[in-house]
Amino acid sequence: MSRDDEKLLRMGVVFVWLATAAVSLWEFNGQSMALLAKAGITDPRLATVLIAAGAGADLLVGMAMALWPSRRIYLTALSLMLAMTAVASVLDPSLWLHPLGPLTKNVPIAAALWVLIRRAR
Fold first, then answer.
1. Name one Pfam family in it (predicted).
2. Nearest to residue 62, comparing CAs of 113, 3, 119?
3. Is 57:80 a contact under the CB 8 Å cutoff?
4. In a 10 Å sphere around its CB, with 0-12 CB exposed, 13-18 middle and 19+ buried, how is residue 111 labelled?
């Protein structure tokens, strides 16, 4: 894999993190709240904290991968993705069966991060 290919792969993963942060906030009172309500989280204060924390984590990891790519950052991204996937799986296991793949997309993202981890200095 060339350095250009590696950069393209990294920027694709960065896009996912930054877009997820933006969409989580854009849909704060829409899909974000609805997703938590479907999982039984109806306290608006708790839901607000969870959405803001998730979006903040996505933003920080996305920016860190864009600005300071390193094995440590990629491992952090992979760990965060695995944790969020586990939480989402517990809150709403039907997300694994969604036709647009909100959780299944994490499998190729994990593979991309693994490649970046192995190639990082």
1. DoxX_3
2. 113
3. yes
4. exposed
